[in-house]
Amino acid sequence: MTTIIGDAKRSIIVSDTMMSDSDSNTKDLDFRKVVKFKDGWLAVAGDVRNLEKVRRWLNDSTLPKPEIKEEFDCDFMKLTPDGLFVTDRHLDFWECVTVDALGSGSGIALGAMKLGHKAEDAVWAATQVDVNSGGKVMVYSLDYSVGKEYIRKAKR
């Protein structure tokens, strides 16, 4: 699936870039699962086919709320000037005032954060352990027009 962490205090979303397809038993190590929308950044964990549909809805308040079927389950995280918000496929966003994570590597990443690591290193740790997370570690801030790759410095 993925690993995505939102850090409300730092106003960032950090994500891996691996997308896996169990139907074809393939993976893409450079898939962007965080996209810009009019108010900030939107991230998806789970069925990525819903990402563009939800982005369109967030960009245009006249559109009806998209219906996401259970078999296409996914979770979303958005970062806006108003804060960090998460939701499931029902798209009823709630605010997160600390840290939250989405995806199969979320337990690993949240554990790393409990040990005092930054979100960037926490996602990196998940890419090293979780079979469904990998690729690059990308950081998204309201100050950025595009995501920035995080390069972890080797510890000695």
What does this structure look like?
By secondary structure, the protein is of the alpha+beta class. It has one domain: Glutamine Phosphoribosylpyrophosphate, subunit 1, domain 1, CATH 3.60.20. The chain has 3 helices and 12 strands; from the N terminus they run ββββββαββββααββ. The strands form 3 sheets. A 5-stranded antiparallel beta sheet has the order 10-1-2-11-12, covered by helices on one side. The chain is globular and about 55 Å long. The model has no long low-confidence stretch (mean pLDDT 95).
Descriptive tags:
12 strands, five-stranded antiparallel β-sheet, Glutamine Phosphoribosylpyrophosphate, subunit 1, domain 1, alpha+beta, single chain, 156 residues
Number of strands: 12
Structural class: alpha+beta
Radius of gyration: 15 Å
Determine the strand fraction and express it as a percent band.
25-35%
Q: Order of strands across the widest beta sheet?
A: 10-1-2-11-12
How many H/I helical runs?
3
N-to-C order of helices and strands = EEEEEEHEEEEHHEE
Q: Please state the oligomeric state of the protein chains shown.
A: single chain
